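Memo to structure team: turn this sequence into structure tokens by end of day. - J.P.
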Amino acid sequence: MVAEEVGFSLLSSVPFEDGLRLTQSATAEYNNESHDLIFQTEIRQGNLAMVGLTPTGTRLFTIILKQGEITAEGLSAIVENIKPDYLLADLQLSLWPAAEIQQALSGGKIITAPSGQRLITRNNQPIIQIEYSQQPAYEGTIRFNHLERGYSLYIEPLSIETIDQPFPENSNNDL
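Reply from structure team:
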């Protein structure tokens, strides 16, 4: 569930011709607190791996989505609080094409404005607001505001690489 009465099935398809390896700086705000993180994310066909780091490089968590299964490792207090499926949903809601998002949503609707804004609505009321500085979205800043859950993410790209080979079969996907 991405919000009350709004379901979202994580997508196994990758909308990028080649895979992507992103390093992003993120500021998360919740309950009048702000936390800075670095995300290292690798997106390949059927696989998604995300590592959350402190600004000094200490690994906090690793989340892997492979063939529809989520695995999460790291500091237990952090992994339990971030809810890995929520974080992966936020990533996909932000970066995947609107048509694919709409097919995976139940009880909600996606609206894309020409201004570069994306809204997820329930009964015509916005519940998630996403703003982009440019397209493709991963090349610029992203402001993700979850109006119902009361948190926001401000994400800036630090590095972007395209990758075209699949994950090695025996890889543990450490980035």
